[in-house]
C-alpha cells in the first residue's frame, strides 16, 4: 500500500476525512445522511440551485429524509451544500451519484457522468478517492471516466484512487436503509479497492469487495435485469390468465407456498423508478460490442413497456360496458409515484397512463398524498398537473378511477363505496366487486 493510500485510509478510519457527494437526489442525499450519522463532515454538490437553497435552509425535498436531521447537522457545521465545485479540492473522498438515463433511442446517456468527471478532473489533487455510484454498463469507470481523470498527469493507484460501488437505494424501504444494505465495491487497483472499502466500511454493515470495477458494474445490472425479466414474466402471465378467467394474484399466492425454488413477483401497470426500466438497456447496448443480442432482456422490456397501454385498454373496455368512451371521459388516477408510500415519480407508469389517456381525449386528474404537483418531466414536457383533493363528492364525478399506486393512505373500501367504476392495477381492493376491474 503506497504512502498516500495509507494516509487516506487512516483519515477515513479516524473520520477526519471530509466526504463530498455529487448529485443530491434519491441516491446522493441518503448517502449524505449515512455519512453524517457515522460522524463524517460532508459537502453536497449539485447543479440545481433550488436544491442547494432548500438544504442550506434545513429543508428536505425527499420525503424519507428528515428536515429536522438536516438542521441538526447544519447547526453543528458538519454539513454544507453548494453548487460551487471548486470546493471539491477540500474533500478527501468524492462520490458521484448523478443520473444515467437513456436517450430517445434507448441508448445510454453518459453525459452527466462524463461532465461530472471533467469537473472532478479540474479539481483533482493527490491523495483523493473518487467513487462512481451511478448505474452504468461494464467498463464505464475505466474506459470512460479514468482517461478524463488522468488527463492532467495524475496516475490512478499512485496519485489518486478510483472505484465503482453501485447504489442500491430502495426509497421508502424502512427495513433496509442505506446503512443496512451491503455495499459491493470494485477498484481499479488494489489500493483503490482498499481505500474505497475502508470508506464504505464506516457507514454500512458489510462491504463486498470484488475483483474489478467491471464486476461491480455488472453486479448492479444483474440485480435489476433479474427483477425486470421476472416482472415481465408475471405481467405476461397476468394478461394470459385474464383471458382465461383466472386470478393471477390467487395463482401467485398459491405458488408462494412452495418453500424452495420459487420467488414471488407481482404484476402492475408497468415499471417505474430510475433503475429497473433503464438499467437493462445499458447491458443491451454494451453487448453489441461483442456481437451478442440480448433477446430475453429486450423482450422483457417490450412486455413491461406494454403494460400502461394494457391498463388503458382495460379502462376503455370497462367504460365501454357502461356506454361511455375514453374520449371525453373524466378519469382520476390514484398515485403518480412509481410505488407505494414514496414521492418519487421517476419513470412512473402513471405518467404514461395519463399521457395515453389525454391523447385519447380523456379529461384526467390525479391524486397523490405525497406528490402535490407533477411537472418538469423530460418525456412529458406538457404535463403540469396538481393533485386534486380526494373527497366522496369529487370521486362521484369521475367516470372511472384508476388505482395506479397502492399508497397505504388509500382506503379501498371507501373507494369502492364512492366510485362509479374502478380499474385496479395493483390488486389493492383485494376482492371481487362488480364495479372493480382488475388490470
Topology summary:
Blueprint: H1 3-13, E1 19-22, H2 28-37, E2 42-45, H3 49-56, H4 67-75, E3 79-82, E4 93-96, H5 111-123, E5 129-132, H6 140-150, E6 161-164, E7 183-187, H7 190-201, E8 207-210, H8 213-244, H9 248-255, H10 279-287, H11 295-321, E9 330-334, H12 349-359, E10 363-367, E11 373-374, E12 385-386, H13 392-395, E13 400-403, H14 412-418, E14 422-424, E15 436-438
Parallel strand pairs: 1-2, 1-4, 2-3, 4-5, 5-6, 7-8, 9-10, 9-13, 13-14, 14-15
Antiparallel strand pairs: 6-7, 11-12
Helix pairs in contact: 1-7, 5-6, 8-10, 8-11, 11-12
Task: Quote the beta fraction.
Answer: 5-15%
- What's the overall geometry? globular
The largest β sheet comes out as:
8 strands, mixed
Structural class, judged by helices and strands? alpha/beta
Strand order of the largest sheet: 3-2-1-4-5-6-7-8
CATH superfamily of the largest domain: NAD(P)-binding Rossmann-like Domain
CATH class of the largest domain: Alpha Beta
Cα-atom radius of gyration:
24 Å
Number of helices: 14
Distance between the termini: 58 Å
Number of strands: 15
What's the domain count? 2
Mean pLDDT: 95
The CATH topology of the largest domain comes to: Rossmann fold
Architecture per CATH nomenclature, i.e. the level-2 architecture of the largest domain: 3-Layer(aba) Sandwich
> From N to C, what is the helix and strand string?
HEHEHHEEHEHEEHEHHHHEHEEEHEHEE
Instruction: Point out poorly predicted stretches.
Output: none
